[in-house]
Amino acid sequence: MAAYAVEPTATAPLRGYTAEHSASEVQWEQKFRALPNTDNLRENMRRLSARPHHVGSPYDKDNAEWLVAQLKSYGLDAKIEQFEALFPTPKSRKLELLGPAKFTAKLEEPTLAIDPTSGQKSEQLPTYNAYSADGDVTAPLVYVNYGAPADYEELERMGVSVKGAIVIARYGQTWRGIKPKLAAQHGAIGCLIYSDPKDDGYVRGESFPEGPMRSAEGAQRGSVMDMPVYPGDPQTPGIGAKPGVKLIPLNQVQTITKIPVMPISYEDAKPFLLALGGQVVPDAWRGGLPLTYKTGPSKVMGHLALAFNWDRKPLYDVVATIPGATFPDQWVIRGNHHDGWVNGAGDPISGASPELEEARSLGELLKQGWKPARTILYCWWDGEEPALLGSTEWAEFHADELKEHAVAYFNSDGNGRGFFRAEGAHSLENFINSVVKDVQDPETGMPVWKRAHLAALVRTGRGGEGEGSGGAESRNRPDTRIGALGSGSDYTVFIDHLGIASANLGYGGEDEGGGQYHSIYDDFYWYTHYSDTDFVYGRALAQTAGSMMMRMADADVIPYQFTDEADTVHNYVTEVKKLADTMRAQTKERNMNIAEGAYKAAADPKKVSVPPPVEAVPPYLNFGPLDQASDDLTAAAAAYEKAFAAHTASGDSAVNPELIKTERALMDPNGLPNRPWFENMVYAPGFYTGYGVKTLPAVREAIEQKEWPTVDAQIVRTADALEREVDVLKTATKMLSGN
Amino acid sequence: MAAYAVEPTATAPLRGYTAEHSASEVQWEQKFRALPNTDNLRENMRRLSARPHHVGSPYDKDNAEWLVAQLKSYGLDAKIEQFEALFPTPKSRKLELLGPAKFTAKLEEPTLAIDPTSGQKSEQLPTYNAYSADGDVTAPLVYVNYGAPADYEELERMGVSVKGAIVIARYGQTWRGIKPKLAAQHGAIGCLIYSDPKDDGYVRGESFPEGPMRSAEGAQRGSVMDMPVYPGDPQTPGIGAKPGVKLIPLNQVQTITKIPVMPISYEDAKPFLLALGGQVVPDAWRGGLPLTYKTGPSKVMGHLALAFNWDRKPLYDVVATIPGATFPDQWVIRGNHHDGWVNGAGDPISGASPELEEARSLGELLKQGWKPARTILYCWWDGEEPALLGSTEWAEFHADELKEHAVAYFNSDGNGRGFFRAEGAHSLENFINSVVKDVQDPETGMPVWKRAHLAALVRTGRGGEGEGSGGAESRNRPDTRIGALGSGSDYTVFIDHLGIASANLGYGGEDEGGGQYHSIYDDFYWYTHYSDTDFVYGRALAQTAGSMMMRMADADVIPYQFTDEADTVHNYVTEVKKLADTMRAQTKERNMNIAEGAYKAAADPKKVSVPPPVEAVPPYLNFGPLDQASDDLTAAAAAYEKAFAAHTASGDSAVNPELIKTERALMDPNGLPNRPWFENMVYAPGFYTGYGVKTLPAVREAIEQKEWPTVDAQIVRTADALEREVDVLKTATKMLSGN
Description:
Largest sheet of chain A: 7 strands, mixed
Radius of gyration of chain A: 26 Å
CATH architecture of the largest domain in chain A: 3-Layer(aba) Sandwich
Distance between the termini of chain A: 51 Å
Structural class of chain A: alpha/beta
Shape of chain A: globular
Largest interface: A-B, 58 and 58 residues
CATH topology of the largest domain in chain A: Aminopeptidase
Strand order of the largest sheet of chain A: 1-11-13-12-14-16-15
Oligomer: homodimer
């Protein structure tokens, strides 16, 4: 293996730093990266995951208090900020298959002797989906695959309706909250979500405890709140929920499911799947159980009865502050949640524990004389699992300050063994790349950036087709592209609601994770046997995120970079144009096929087969404003870059308050159609994907949802947002070039 | 549904017919298509599949004699032509998993009370692979997925060797004979082939007898002879094996496997799969059993002991002849085999029975005064299952006559419910299209051509991507494209060894077939419950193939058409050029990735991972001769078409003997590299695919197998073959235009 210089002799100064300042920053960062300690990481995890610590549990509060005590012992100013939120927990759960061979689902994950914390029954939340509606329903069952929009189209083609049925969907592909939302929209009255062994069980690897994957009776807890409408406390959208705040009455809350929903294991699901009649499902719908998957409906009835305690519970956010020495009013924020569904060793402690080790190490640096230029906030959020509660309420409460002061938010949410991955605002793409060039990958010894960059070349290329085609761009582009942020963790309120440049960071891809997710087995035993067992990637995460905090906090000029962003936005514009063109061509062709009777000709008369409906051909849309805005952003970014390069040596920091406005400029106070809480016109979680991002969401979703008359207006709004950023950039450029 | 005219008023005369002759032909064909009777088809199948009828069995001979008697009763001149061939049958079979929990495989398909012929144990061949070598081996096991070339590359990447091991491969993807061939090439000493439920078991549909799919103890018999080298009697390549012919000694036969091979059920396979250690397999390698598939090797040993009776057995080909009234020396040939692995209701009787009904119907027409212009041969081949024995020996024996007289060969090999499909020489593409425009689809009432054409539009289009892109060509091209012939049935000797324009015909795609294939359950019970249960597609096949026989036999000028062929050859030339370009680009990129250490960077150090080897970058090749020949063929085909159109009204038939040479011209007497029996330079079964076709095989396989120094010469040989056809076409064109 070639020898890689992991701590390169920095010939060029760090972006946003004068040469002299850069040299001292490099030294401080090197000192910092030597500090995180794997033994501490292990002990942090052991402590924080020792007992179940979900919202409202005794150990959730205990952990928060312990975190504060630890932070204080590092010499940091730390406190709990308390909020509250609606957090339903099960009062009663019943699931049966009626008929001659009546079956009652166990709905329980067994204690394993080998796994010491799996038996903490009295403190564990039972398996359930938070924010499921109460309900008692009896109905035939229909299998809906992943319960995504395309699955319902496929069912319609097979003549199967879910109206009045209980759907049984498998976990995966789409975020779980989308499944009951779509099921209800299609007329279902109940929803079961089970873990198929093809998705995270024996098909992928040996089952726990022989291996890391989900066992026969393992089930996945999780929220099903309609978070693409808004996350956080359902009763206080847009408002930080301090005790006493005015609440929306429960029966007016939009984000609770319309039908009862229940997560089950595949052992509990099997009798329901075996009861299904109807057609054999399409190939892609088949799971890994040894049975013939069919659509249903079932002849026998399912019975699902759920009741919840609709209580408000306290949230304990932990916040530590290191005041900035030079720019105290510019804040750099770090966060990872501390609540878990049960013991939560992987999710979230494998991220929260390195974050604590970062804080300890920064405490050490402070003792050695380092002083951050900007104010640093280290946060451990409560209530992420139910609905990003702690981060959302905190950021809504501090919204005005954050809009004025926040420079960047760096999130993590668990960590594993393997490759660095980041999603984030593309104004941070260059910055993120720059930091991971200075962190060493523990397994290969090469810089983290180098490993991720090289591995991506082969992973996209491997297996033929790719190799020889796509490699050139990623081989030659200086910055490895980062993904866009959807949702699924605490960055959501920062980027989507407040317009703060945010990123989500982590390592993974080598540990065979997934099978423990949101179960009682996501614990210290599982993590130390199957994930980052020696905590070297926990240390790498602490080194990575901590270096980012320091480099962002100390820079003379905030090291945002906009040419990467402009390039990415240009790609998004190309995508939405292509999407409209493809849909137009497909609709024309499909309509022609319907008219010619092609679907009838292709149908097997012994099976029900319904041709798709004739649809209006999508109109030609006016993408002009978006093309113009994309071009303008490209030009403005290039001009800024030129001015920035000329200016760097001066160290003058006057431009920073203007720079902070660049991401804010993308916000439209009217928000996205039907969900005003989401104001970012470039990034949003998909209304029908949940976690999955939709970039240029107002435009893209109007096209995807075929709301043709509205598209042109959304193009204009989106273009306006980009033009607002162009204006900010032009001002910043003028300030840098002093004219 | 629109009303379709199924018997169109033929305004334009049939191709190759004068207007007057066309009108009478249309009438005779209409009379013919009214004759096939579904009751007869059912009774033919009941009789022919009543008992096991493999090569050498009493009922195989009995069926041949019954066929002759039936044909004679129709007034036809029929006889048995007897040949002989090596046909090994099991003497002893043993398969064990050694070690503490010793397991002995059952190797037996159980009798089912509901299925009356499944209990004919004394006449059934046990499960085995014909032409497996004798052997007694004890070794660890390695799972090789489908055992295709790419699977061995993948194993190498995972650091797994099969040297000295018994491989366990699943049925599917590649022809079964390729699996032991490649296993032996990689150093394995034994080979098990099992039927995974993902490929033809419960994953696809309910298991027999509740449904059509393969049950837990069902196994697939079949030949593993190295037929891509040559099919037919292994001891007499190129020579029709009449008794007394000189034989190659057994120990010099090239086409018998190098290692013992055994087909097993998944119930027998399970303990072997569970014994495998090593890495979890890649996603695409996972089958449908409820276990974690791993590569192996196993710690415990497998023991496979096989011994065979290496006997020569008689073959009873049945041949009926209807002498041609006008061109007795021009032969149109029809064939389907009559031997089965066991009862063989689907394979081959569902094709052989309609063929018999065609013969009966033609007998009726003869009584009504119809006389074919050309000589018609109806053949029922023996010994197709072991190695295309009956057809190959017959055609080798009659090679000289066939080269001189044969106009076309129309094959079928079983039949099912659904859509018409054809593969064949592209000089027949227009002809095949013309006939299926006149046959009615029994389920929709529309012409068979129309249904297949429309269904293809939706099937390529459905699911998004395709629709809106690929539809235009198939919508507007007057002739639906037919596939090219690989191997797997009795057309092989005709097209690949003798250069006779051939086609393979059948209906299917709606019956959920596959699970009964080559098992004791492929019988009357299975077929009449799960396939073409009312024999309407049997009737459609008889109507289709019989009409083709008549139309080809009666034409004044043989209705070959060459612009379709030229268009297809042009596509093939484009494909092989693209193949070389893609491989060059991929090799460059892969070499670059290896040099940069990308594979090492991407590897998980906790798993064995071996970078691919650096390979020589493929040279730039001289495709000039092939481009030139393709252009010349295009021009010659267009010129012929013009002359043909001008000539049609005359009815002059002098050109026919020249036309017969067009397909012969593609033959190179030196054959393909390493397999001289295969002489066709446009079509061949793949050396490493078996069934799957390789067009322009000398060129394509030299590229695929990276034999770079040989490619240019193969381009020249292939171009020469095309230019020979061009010359024939030019002569034919001159003859037609009379100058």
